[in-house]
Queue: 3 jobs
Job 1
Amino acid sequence: MNRVQLRDDIVINFNEAELHQLCVQLELDYDALRGKTHRDRVSVLIGKLERDNRLPDLMEVMAQKRPYLAERYAADPAEPPDSPSEEDRLTWLDNVDRPIEEPPTMRWDTTARHKTDKKKQNKEE
């Protein structure tokens, strides 16, 4: 399941009161959803349910409330993410002591302005 599509479906099809009802049905504390906007709270909800491997529960409740979404989620069920192996989680350590492969793309020339200022001062004197 595309998490962005899931978030957009909730944001578009469920207002704040309905999001609160989704939380009640999923036995979650709506007040624990931190975020300033509706979209932020929906993202937090999806993240929490994904960590708990409960996205199928969310999609089931959404399909009950909005039957036209049932086909979309029936065709693309959520699968819990594969947990990475210890070796996969630590592969970034292989690159710690390696130098940066690309040179910097931009350097500031701080002397150019000062040279012209000194030339102007010399001409004025």
Job 2
Amino acid sequence: MAKQDDIGPVFDALADPTRRQVVTLLGSGTRRAGELAAATGTSGPTMSRHLRVLLDAGLVADERGRDDARVRLFRLRPQTIVALRAWVDQLQAEWDHQLASFKDHVARRVEEESS
């Protein structure tokens, strides 16, 4: 299983509803910080802080525009989402195994009691 330390910053970043909204918005493509601020109803400085947290957690990457180097475009980093999904899938597999074991135990007990 992925170490909790590896994904801790991702969970910390996603704990904020505005940052979750930014991730959702970036799911449909790259956007400028100003567009994200307008879409979430936050100020530019507040959006900059949110984007810094998302960048530090590895959820988002930024790049300079081809036409204007002053413009930063933000996009999701799919590899971080894939790693998060892998951790959740691994956790789900462990839960499924535990539930299957419990189901087998109950079935054996019922069978023993009816014998």
Job 3
Amino acid sequence: MLQEARMTTEKPYLSGNKPGAGVSIWFQCRDSLVLYHEFLDNGIKPDEPFVGNGLWDLRVVDPDGYDVHFESKTDVEEETRYSDWRKSKKD
């Protein structure tokens, strides 16, 4: 799915003059949590994954301003944050 920013007569929906400002790109993948750790290990700073619509959602913003999401299926409860889920697994 590709989403672009809505333009108004006053200013762009999202401010910024980067080519990707306001654009989101979504990828379905096998395991977005594995990608999360690979990104961290390689110095990339993604947002903390969370569960939405039965999917782990991992978001990272690329240097041009694009929001890139990687999603993978899960049966974890909606709106669960990764850190909370890991903490519950240790208990």
